[in-house]
């Protein structure tokens, strides 16, 4: 007979600070090896036939063997074979027990908070978070779900984090380096504070990726990812993921995703598997290019400020050198003249593309004040460092001299 509840979790996940996390998948293999092999081997794989490349299985439903026996895969809202390979690979790269994907990074955040928080609960974070996440934190969850988000004003003050946590805190959320101002948060220190209060720490690792930063090795319990950015690397995939304890990701899968239905499709998962194979090499090149561009901008007379942790003058420079392998491919800089100055520069670039994303092979610029962080109050933007003249620059894989030459001629229009 059918089990009464055969698919979804009987009980919601409960964080246990005393529980020891299991080892991440394929923990004995090197990072680049995991990026190529985790979740699928051509001769030993769960898909039951030989293929050098993980197959894309587009089916959204799966036949039962009999009335009494359920298949491993039931229906596309819960999981599909190609997506499962991707989830295992992402878990292996981040060092987590399990992974559940989502239709976008914003959806991954929503699914995580929606799963673990209830009306009257709260989440502790800061203003150093991505714009869509801020919108969820400032309006959607408080107004529609009764979940409060508490913003730490000084993210470098560890006691400020502790002061916001109480008995109804379900999660501490950090994004580092942050988008768009590249604020670097001490993951180990915040993790220690969160764990002392019996609260899990989630780190948004979108900007650095596991190629450059390992939050779980520094004490994080959960990793939040936008697959759309550096992980895919070319603006052809929209997706997100949560990596963490197996019980948590299965709670999200069966008690939220299964019913909300905001899933990653097999084709996008298949593309992601191809792109992850070059993640390490791409992040090295993004980082080296960004360092050269940041140094150029920092010395330019028409640039008033540069945010990039690879610069010695960045307030988080020393911390970034400790907790990151390299400094990543995202930076931002301020030009004089506010929005008018920013518009002048952005309308003058020829090689650099003006678009709303980051982490692509092509260099992209974007204006946070009017696009991603327009929902913030002027006071909040000032606190987060989002000046009207701030331009976010996602440095691509072009020859760095060509990127610099284009920025130089555009700045010359000021």
Q: Tell me the major beta sheet.
A: 7 strands, mixed
The number of helical segments is 13
Return the average pLDDT rounded to an integer. 93
Tell me the structural class: alpha/beta
- Quickly name the level 1 CATH class of the largest domain: Alpha Beta
**Segments where pLDDT lies below 50 for 5+ residues?**
1-6
Tell how many strands the DSSP assignment holds: 12
* CATH homologous superfamily caption of the largest domain: Type I PLP-dependent aspartate aminotransferase-like (Major domain)
Oligomeric state as shown: single chain
- The tally of domains stands at 2
Share of β-strand residues: 5-15%
Radius of gyration: 21 Å
CATH topology term of the largest domain: Aspartate Aminotransferase, domain 2
CATH arch. level architecture of the largest domain: 3-Layer(aba) Sandwich
Strand/helix succession: HHEHEHEHEHEEEHHHEHEHEEHEH
